[in-house]
Amino acid sequence: MMSYEFLMQLVVNGIVIGLIYGLIATGLALLFGILHIVNFAHGEIVMLAMYTLAVAVPFLGGSYIASFALIVAAATMIGWLVSGALLAALSARRGDMAAFEKSLLLTLGLSIILLNGVQYIFTATPMMVTTDIPVGAFLLGPVRLSYAHAIAGAIAVVVFVALYVFLTRTNSGRALRAVAQNREAALMIGLDPERVARRAITLSIVLCAVGGMVLVPLYVFQPIVGQALLLKAFAIVIIGGMGNVLGAALVALALGIIESMVGGFANIVWQNAIAFIGMIAVLLIRPQGLFALAMRKG
Amino acid sequence: MAALLLAIFIAVPFLTQSPYFLTIGISAMIFTVFAMSLNIVYGYAGLLSLAQVGFWGVGSYVAALVVTRLDGSIWEGMLAAAAVSAAGGILIGAVALRLSNHAFVIVSLCFTLLMQMLAQEWIDLTNGPMGIPGLPAPGIGFGETSFVFATPTHFFYLTLAFATISLGVIWLIVTSRIGRTFRMIKHDETLSCSLGVRVTVWKLFAIALASVFAALSGALYVFYVTIVDPLIFDVYYTQVILVIVIIGGLGSFWPVVVSGLLITVLPEILRTPNELRMISYGVILVLAVLLMPTGIAGLVNKVRMRRPMSNANAAESST
Question: Which pTM was predicted?
Answer without folding.
Answer: 0.81
